[in-house]
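[audit] Reproducing an earlier prediction to check determinism. Same input, same settings, fresh worker. If the tokens differ from the archived copy the diff job will pick it up downstream; this log only records the rerun itself.
[audit] input (119 residues):
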Amino acid sequence: MIKKIVFTLFAALCLFVAYYGYYLLYWSTEVTNLSAQKITQVTVNLPGEEVVLTDIEPLSSVHVTHRAADADGGYHYHITFASGASVEGGCGYVTPGLFDEKLTLIVNSPLQISCEFTP
């Protein structure tokens, strides 16, 4: 009976460590397109990682999980619209060891981009 309890507690601990370990190693990026134009490509660069999202329809969102940053630096983005217009910029600062970092780029128009961070 005690072996069964110990095994159950050990299994629960392993699941807990695996679940939270995943969030230490992986972050997420989301692009919300509130503009009237289709976004053909968004490239987000952060230290040691490049994230590319494609074909984001107006009034929709796309989400991707990616490897966490392995060095200090900022988020830099390049957004290309179906019209051929493009915009680039940067926002935020990342350091290794942040827990479950999520960047949301909100595109209201080709000239109005905002960033939200959710730890």
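[audit] rerun output stored. Observation attached for the diff report: Helices lie at 2-25.
[audit] end
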